[in-house]
Amino acid sequence: MNPQKMADLWSHCHWLTVLAEQGSYTAAAAHLGVSKAAMSQRMADLERVAGVPLVQRTTRSVRLTEAGQRLVDQTRTAFDQIAQSFAQVRDLAEAPQGLLRVTAPVALARQQIVPLLPGFLHQYPRVRIELNLSDRLSSLATEGFDLAIRHTAHPPDTHVATELCTTRSVLVASQAYLHRAGTPQRPQDLSAHNCLHYPRPQERPAWTLEPRHKKDGRERVTVQIAGTLSANNSEALRDAAMAGLGVALLPDFSAQSALQTGQLVEVLPGWTPVGSFADRIYAVRPYAAHVPLAVKALVVFLRESLAKGFS
Known about the structure:
Layout: H1 3-22, H2 25-32, H3 36-50, E1 55-57, E2 62-64, H4 66-90, E3 98-104, H5 106-113, H6 117-123, E4 127-133, H7 140-143, E5 147-151, E6 159-166, E7 169-173, H8 175-181, E8 195-196, E9 206-211, E10 221-224, H9 234-242, E11 247-251, H10 252-261, E12 265-266, E13 271-274, E14 280-286, H11 293-305
Parallel strand pairs: 3-4, 3-5, 8-11
Antiparallel strand pairs: 1-2, 5-14, 6-14, 7-11, 7-12, 9-10, 9-13
Helix pairs in contact: 1-2, 1-3, 1-4, 2-3
């Protein structure tokens, strides 16, 4: 094949690697910023020149033929190296720039991450952020995210994780609820209260608490609890507690503002809930030979901004 014809097909081969990563014409076209029709036409042109089918189409997704997979396997590394080289050249400007695709849990992002982003973007005006708020654990590599914020005790060892801060769980209620229902004096008292909790895959929910100061001789206690509301979002539980519905178990980043304003007070402050939420927040990124300056800058900014935690 003549050099000109090969040059014309480079972008076609790159689009095939994107199609292999995304798994559908619609997702690949969205990732590349082109129409689905253009994506389909490029693949048809590539197959015509190759002389063999490269893609097997189904109603919901696509998969590569043996020939298509071989072509992707043999060209993907070259395209990755081109992308890394170009990123390194752009970084010679010594100013973070470009698009950052970030994913973060809904409550944590809304309450703690989003308020910080204007300061970051004012500091780095050539950076753009596309923020995905989801409690689903997205695949960074498959879905094209540059960075994920994770509330977890065990960040994936297949990625690079930077600890941003520690976090803890707290029991909270409104003064109005405690005035009406009484203030728990020991963990066992929670069994008589309306407890607002996360739904768990078990017959009856339970909270486990341990003494905050272990030297006082008290032991870890597990209490069976019940309540009129369970929800898989800490903001929903916080708002219900603020409305006087009951006692809620929350991560401290969800309770912080309401505790500071007095809308909620901590219940059983001498005890620490354990086992419900993780105690660390991380910034997680894929392994890469070259890390864009914008990614590095955002991780440093978040680590400095969140260093004191939420207590």
